[in-house]
Amino acid sequence: MLCTIAALSGVPAFGSLPGTEGPSAPSGVGKIARGFPAPDATFERLVGSPVRLSDLKGQAVVLDFWSLWCGPCLAELPHLSKVAQQYADAGVTFLAVNVDDPDEQQDKVSEYVAKIPEAKPFVVFATPKIASLYRVHVLPTLVAIDRGGKIIGVALGALSIEEPNDDVTELFRELASTDAGVQSPSGVSGNRRPRPGTRPSPQKP
Length: 205
Description:
Number of strands: 9
Mean pLDDT: 77
Order of helices and strands: HEEEHEHEHEEEHE
Low-confidence stretches: 1-29, 180-205
Strand order of the largest sheet: 2-1-5-4-3-7-8
Radius of gyration: 15 Å
Structural class: alpha+beta
Number of helices: 5
Distance between the termini: 37 Å
Strand content: 15-25%
Largest sheet: 7 strands, mixed
C-alpha cells in the first residue's frame, strides 16, 4: 500500500499501537496523531542557524527521525533529500532529524553526510526531549505536518523508495498540493507498522 497522506492520516498515537509502546511524553503534550498540533521544538542544524518548528507555519513539514546505526534510515535519506529538493519551492520543508547524541556523534554524522551532499541542508539534531515529545521509539519514524502546524500522518518503519510511484514522492506531492489540512477519505486506515529490518530506537536508562 502506498504511504500517501491519506494512508498515513489514520495512524493513532504511538501508545495505542499494540506491541509498540514507547516512552511517555512530558505532561501536557498532546498525542502524536492526526489532527493534533505538532509539538513545538527547536532543532540545531548540521549547517546553518537553528530552526524552530513554529516558525514554519504556512509550510508543510516532513520530519524524518533517523540514526547512523539504522540501516533503513540510511537507505531512505538520499532519496528523501532528493525529493525534498524538488519540492522545496512548493512550500514543503524537510528536516532529517538525527537522534544520535550530537556531543558524541556529530563528527560521524558530518562524515556520513559528506557522502550524500544533497542531504546536508536538511540534517538537524534532536535532543532526548524532542525525541520524547514525538514518541520516537522506532526508526525511521516520519511525521507529516500540514501548513497549519497539525499532524496529518505518522509512519513507523521504512518507506518504499522504488521510483516512479514511491511512497516518498507521493507524500511530498500531496503535501505540496494542499493549502491546509488533508482530509482522509472515509474508511481509510493507515496504521504503519515497522517493516522487517527496522530496529527499535535505543532507550537510555
